[in-house]
Every structure is written in C-alpha cells, then in structure tokens.
Design goal:
By secondary structure, the chain is of the alpha+beta class. It is built from 6 helices and 10 strands. Strands 1, 2, 3, 4, 5, 6, 7, 8, 9 and 10 form a 10-stranded mixed beta sheet that branches. A hairpin with a 2-residue loop joins strand 8 and strand 9.
C-alpha cells in the first residue's frame, strides 16, 4: 500500500513539474521576442539605421538587453534573436548570445540594446555556430547622418546600440557570437539546427512572431 502511494505521489509530482516547465520554456522566449521587436522598431524608426542597409541585410540580430558582467568576469553579455532572409521572406528566428569584449556603455549605464546587421559573409559566419567579432569582422554601423551608399558594405557585421535613449553605431570588437542550440531545441525540437531555422525550413512559433513582424518588409 505504501509502495503504491509512493509511486502515485512521484507520478503526481513529475506531472506537475512537466506542466510547470512548459510555460517556463515558452514565456521567457515570448518576452524576449517582444523586447527584441520593440528595440528593433525603436532603432529603425529613428532613421539612425539607414534603410538602404536594412534592405541589404541578409540577417538581422537583436539583443534587447546587453548588460555589464560581474566585476570578476569583465566584459558584457546578452542574448537575443536573429532572423535571415530566405526566398520566401524572413526565416523563423534562431536564438543566440554575445559575450566578452566591451560594447562601450556610457558611464553609469548598466545595459543597452544592440542591433546587428549581417551581409552574406556575416550570415555564413553565423551559420558556423560561433565566431569572434575581430576588427575585420565587425564595424560600427553608419547612421543616417554620416552614411554614404557609395562607401559600400565592407565588414560582415554592422552594429548599432541604444543606451540612455541615444542611438549610434557601436564598436563590439572582441565579442563572440554563439548560437544558443539549447534554446533552439526547446522551441523547435531536439533535432532542429540553427541552419534549418535560418534557412526557412521551420515555421515561426507564435511566441516569436512579434519579432519577425518587426523586421523590415519588402
């Protein structure tokens, strides 16, 4: 009798933990998607990010909350969403993180928002799963006031930041971009890869549609 009761109790506890885990996996991603969408709209609507570059970007990544790491760790860290163009429009977003280096937060600022524009080379680097943003790999994105289309797009990644309400190109050299495979597996399934997601082979989940809706259309 005691054995049967113990099995029942364990089953109930396990069932409850599974029920609790489902919203715990999806809710944070839904909020992250909403925050990333808000960041993207704010930065693109400000006209600081030239529309020409947005139209040329093969992938767009957004870190809605880049924070300073602890004193013993150094550098900065953040996570976000990235989507790439496909023959049928923007892909479902993959999840990624960026860490190390320094985003150059203003004195007293504890966080900032980052937008990354990637050309085709940047897209290929991203699909490798992890790459370091060396001096040749990333450049502070030109803003509307200092952008010249004749200059072309040379660095694989162009970066922008918003901090204390100010928008500007951001130097993030020395940082490392890493695909968050764990988050991708939780949202899309254990056998799904970032390459499959970013090539348009999976549908955008409901909790990420806010982000894809905010991406430039056309």
């Amino acid at each position: 009798m005691m054995k049967t009761g113990l099995i029942t109790a364990v089953a109930v506890l396990f069932g409850c933990s599974v029920c609790a885990a489902k919203p715990a996996n999806s809710a944070p991603r839904s909020q992250e998607s909403a925050n990333a969408a808000q960041t993207l709209r704010q930065m693109t609507n400000s006209n600081k990010v030239p529309k020409t570059l947005l139209d040329q970007a093969q992938c767009i990544g957004v870190i809605p909350n880049m924070t300073k790491a602890g004193l013993l760790v150094g550098g900065e860290h953040g996570s976000g969403l990235v989507s790439c163009r496909t023959s049928s429009g923007w892909s479902a977003p993959a999840f990624f993180g960026i860490s190390g280096g320094s985003i150059g937060l203003e004195a007293g600022a504890q966080n900032s928002q980052i937008v990354l524009l990637m050309n085709n080379q940047g897209k290929q680097d991203l699909l490798q799963g992890k790459f370091q943003l060396s001096a040749n790999a990333v450049a502070a994105g030109p803003t509307g006031s200092n952008y010249s289309a004749s200059a072309g797009w040379k660095a694989p990644v162009l970066s922008y930041k918003q901090s204390h309400g100010a928008y500007a190109g951001a130097s993030i050299q020395g940082s490392t971009i890493s695909i968050n495979s764990g988050a991708i597996h939780k949202v899309y399934g254990q056998n799904v890869t970032a390459r499959q997601v970013l090539s348009g082979k999976v549908q955008t989940p409901s909790q990420a549609r806010q982000f894809t809706d905010a991406l430039p259309q056309g």
